[in-house]
Specification:
Blueprint (H helix, E strand, L loop, with lengths): L2 H10 L5 H10 L1 E5 L4 E3 L7 E7 L1 E7 L5 E8 L5 H9 L6 E4 L3 E7 L1 H9 L1 H27 L2 H16 L3 E3 L2 H8 L3 H13 L3 E4 L2 E4 L4
Antiparallel strand pairs: 1-7, 2-6, 3-7, 4-5, 4-6, 8-10, 9-10
Helix pairs in contact: 4-5, 6-8, 7-8
Amino acid sequence: MTTVESNLSSNFGYLFEDDLLSEIKEIGISKTIPQNDVIIEIGEYIKFMPLLLNGAIKILREDQNGEGLVLYYLEKGDTCAMTLSCCLGETKSKIRAVAETDVTLMMVPKEKMGEWLGKYNSWQAFILQSYHNRMDELLEAVDTIAFLKMDERLFKYLKDKAMVNHNDVISITHQQIAEDLHTSRVVISRLLKKLENEQKIQLFRNSIKVIELV
């Protein structure tokens, strides 16, 4: 068994029937994406649905000025349910997916999406659960923007980023954070200093240690 097949079995074997796993192994295309590379771009037609075997993916929306806003993260064992609706409806992607870390994917051709919904109960349950999870995360993102102060949004962002990277030290610049949170670098730098004074984080050159993870 190859490493990819082993990762597929360990991440999805408890969810899918053996026949479905066999089909995925037979027709799926393994792909490795380096950190920070774009996996899905806004406006693209999606031909494959990604199953995440390793790493983490950042999902963003874009405003009319071309500036991005982080919505949520995907981790191993996840898929982006939005790609399913684009595949089935043959519509263009409304999100951008970026490799938060080095990522390994199993790309499943879109032609199989609808077929498997009727063929495998486990696939249907997986897709419905994925929609449910992503909806919860979208609502959380809306609540964060609407109800949290910017310093609270920033701290939540840092904790989320540390959790998906499985590392309490985040390699990132103030400008990158500002772009993800749709604000200015000056505001981010000021709030980071505030969080450091509150002993929630520790600042280094181009990295941040999150002290309070829970």
